[in-house]
């Protein structure tokens, strides 16, 4: 039987699958990064599992997270989504997703990809934290504060330092699996000889 992170509820198979297959694995695909940013920004004030349960609803509502389609969404789309029970019906968050898509595309234009922009904040290296107990989990970091500040300057909404840190954990910039979790070492083994900078530049 595998040992997994202390925060995980092992009675929820979908939660376990997310932990085992996605959380903390480095991501370089812009569409996936936009998906993660959208879901993390939707989480504000809610549990991550609530958003995870609505993930498919978000995919359908926001064009499979194709950022070029999301930027074309109109006030009519916003009104329609306010009646969509498959997502969080918060108008400000819905508007933020469309707004963030526009800012996301600007970054792609400036840096070549969002992945290239994002990974520069950790100097193209996975940050590995020493997690022995639930108390060891950081809520923010110096990097997430700087990353969030830059995103805000570029027009992003609902992406403060705590939300951005959660995004960093999810997209593998930070390996915050417990020291005892099987996934921690698995990720380290998979990525120890890979030049991340070459992946995004």
UniProtKB/TrEMBL annotation:
Write out the residues that bind Zn(2+).
5, 19, 177, 181
Biological processes annotated in GO? base-excision repair
Pfam families assigned to the protein according to its UniProt record, in alphabetical order: Adenine_glyco (PF03352)
Tell me, what is one Gene Ontology molecular-function annotation carried by this entry? DNA-3-methyladenine glycosylase activity
Q: Which SUPFAM superfamilies match?
A: DNA-glycosylase
Q: Which InterPro entries match?
A: Adenine_glyco (IPR005019), DNA-3mA_glycosylase (IPR052891), DNA_glycosylase (IPR011257)
* Keyword entries, A-Z: Metal-binding, Zinc
PANTHER family documented for this protein = DNA-3-METHYLADENINE GLYCOSYLASE 1, DNA-3-METHYLADENINE GLYCOSYLASE I
The name this protein carries in UniProt is DNA-3-methyladenine glycosylase I
Per the UniProt record, the source organism is Pseudoalteromonas aurantia
